[in-house]
Amino acid sequence: MIKKKICMLGAFAVGKTSLVQRFVNSIFSEKYQTTIGVKIDQKLVQVGDTEVNLMLWDIHGEDDFQKVKPSYIMGASGYFVVVDVTREQTLDVGLSLQKMAAQMSKNAPFIVLINKTDLPRSEWYINDATIEEIKSKGFKVILTSAKEGTGVEEAFSQLTSLMINK
Amino acid sequence: MLKDLPLKIVEYLVKEIPPFTGLLLIKVDGAGIVKNWKGNPADYLNKELKEGGSIEDFVPALSGVCPFDKGAVRLTKIQLLDKYCDIHAIKENGHYWIIFIDQTREVDSLKSLLQNMNEDQLKSNKAKDKFPFFHLDKLNFATFKRDKEGTFILQPNAPGWLLKHPDYKSVKSTTDPLSAFPFLEVFAMEVDDFWKENRESYIVSETWSETFAGKDHYLRAYAANFNNDNYLFLKSFIREGVEEQNLLQAFRDSTLAFDKLARAEKKLKELLSYKNKFNSIISHDLRAPIAAVLGVVNVLTTDEEEMGKLNEDYQELIHGIKDEMNRLLDYNNKLYHWANLELGNFKLEFEDVLLDEVVKIAAETAKEKCNEKNITLNIDIQDSFEVRIDKTLFLQALNNLLSNAIKFTPEGNSISVTVKKQDNNAIVAVADTGIGMSERMVATLFDESESNTTLGTSGEKGTGLGLGIIKKIIDAHKFGIEVQSEQGKGTTFIIEIPESNLK
Ligand SMILES: Nc1nc2c(ncn2[C@@H]2O[C@H](COP(=O)(O)OP(=O)(O)OP(=O)(O)O)[C@@H](O)[C@H]2O)c(=O)[nH]1
Ligand SMILES: [Mg+2]
């Protein structure tokens, strides 16, 4: 069995913990409980014939008070950059974390997750044009909702196969 | 409490897990003179804290420590009143923030630890030499020692929280903590060199969390070298109320709430701006047809011959149309101005003019309406000023003020406009002898959400826009406007032009 480390990166309250909890335990909570430090969850997945143990590093959100330590990303096989579709500034935070992660683990694949897409479109600050702009950098983007489960399985399975096939 | 503190200090406070409790913060300058404070000084000090006093007078424990230029200060377990506290001093922007943190609970738990240690020592003098970290479990530390193969072995005594972990059900468990707690893989890499060096010291990890036995644990690892051995300590911070007291959580919650409000406000402003654009376009386009109809009516009413052919009822009807159309035009003009002012579609063009002249022009404009109602207009120029204003807009405000005054002044009464100096400012006061306003009405007069339109003394209808226009213009000039009113006596509007706009 292979072990693979995946990091969740993003600004605070974008839904990193919620995405992991949806994926691992199929649950969602409306209550916001900010992650302190790091919380690691594990999930066994099957990729073809191989069984993979995913170590999901749910890292605290970044803001002025808490900067994500580069060493958290050490040894990661892949990572997600999570963005809150209703909060414009979370995109900048996500993209700058991506830059840092790219330096720490050069060739690790990653996917940008635009989360909370269950919220009404009138509240979206990240529109189609912005999404195209992110894609044009060569980044893979998936729209997700931890609340409704949309795109969550897809996100994890796509990242896992990117990691395995590398 | 956090909102008014400098970022650096908030940063220092919110990161702490478990969170700091019972906070008192005192800001002092380099010489230790008290500037201000947050929190309740009476929790720790028996003297009333005063700005300008020396911190040493209030906190004797700090005497000799100030000034703090020797670097970071951390005094631990200081007894103040009935409490134990830690005192930290942090330099920020040339000042120092002295932070008091309640440690009474920690000290209470230490007391029993000390008691235990002393009792053990009495029993066997050698207990301490045998194993230096024998009592650390009482402080929630688990101790692991690295053997020759590089595996970490759990040492006695194991703390209760660890024994609830599925990998450490037994004190004899030999599970490598690095596999039980994957977070340690990164920490172990970080401290590898430190362990090899074998320098007697320690390194603390970041906080991480684990859930087991149905409880959330906050954990922190310490790498330490002692007597040429490598140790790994794990400390659990599980403590009731950690979540509730967590300043970081509170701060993020309020940031999210604030963001949400800001987004709602932005949306609302957009909507309002649409509304105003709409008003602006409509009122602009209505102007021409209204003016055209008025033109025709004017031709009719001034043609005595044609009018003479009509019977009295029709004549009255046509005069009625003329009045109504005039009112509509006035309303439309005001709406147009108002919508454009709202949109911020105007830039003040300042020029130096004589204030008395502007007032005289406005009086001239008001004259006709005054005559209609037999109102005496008194102009009282006590001081002469040259002022910097946007003449067109200021005149528009004055005109609006005067037509308001006329509207609310009964026939045969008087209105006065006074220009004078007051506290180095120039004052233009427009006073009517009308019906006056209630206190409530004065208080909400400039509030656009309130509809304050009232019929005039001769039944004149208002647009409810006049005051809004006045306020916008005066605000744009950064002048002041004030209302004094007494019901049944009259109302005075006072425009205050500050010294900076006088020549
Ligand atoms: N509507 C909606 N709400 C979501 C979604 N995902 C998360 N949330 C809510 O957003 C808030 C933050 O979610 P978390 O998962 O705690 O965010 P986080 O990124 O882990 O936050 P930090 O740990 O502070 O960095 C919570 O109130 C969640 O209920 C989603 O897909 N849709
Ligand atoms: Mg989280």
SS-derived structural category of chain A? alpha/beta
Largest sheet of chain B: 6 strands, antiparallel
CATH topology of the largest domain in chain B: Heat Shock Protein 90
**Beta-strand level of the residues of chain B, as a percent range?**
15-25%
N-C termini distance of chain B: 45 Å
Detail the poorly predicted runs of chain B.
none
Fourth-tier CATH superfamily name of the largest domain in chain B: Histidine kinase-like ATPase, C-terminal domain
Helix content of chain B: 40-55%
What is the topology?
The complex is a heterodimer of chains A (166) and B (503).
Chain A: E1 2-10, H1 16-25, E2 38-47, E3 50-59, E4 78-84, H2 89-104, E5 110-115, H3 128-136, E6 140-143, H4 152-164
Parallel strand pairs in A: 1-3, 1-4, 4-5, 5-6
Antiparallel strand pairs in A: 2-3
Chain B: H1 7-14, E1 24-28, E2 34-38, H2 55-58, E3 73-80, E4 83-92, E5 95-102, H3 104-123, H4 127-130, E6 141-146, E7 152-154, H5 160-163, H6 177-180, H7 183-197, E8 202-204, E9 208-212, E10 215-226, E11 229-236, H8 242-245, H9 247-302, H10 304-309, H11 312-342, E12 351-354, H12 355-373, E13 376-381, E14 386-389, H13 391-407, E15 414-422, E16 425-432, H14 439-443, H15 466-477, E17 480-486, E18 490-497
Parallel strand pairs in B: 13-15
Antiparallel strand pairs in B: 1-2, 1-5, 3-4, 4-5, 6-7, 6-11, 8-10, 9-10, 10-11, 12-14, 15-16, 16-18, 17-18
The complex binds guanosine-5'-triphosphate (GTP) and magnesium ion (MG).
What would a concise description of this structure say?
The complex is a heterodimer of chains A (166) and B (503). By secondary structure, chain A is α/β, with parallel strands linked by helices.
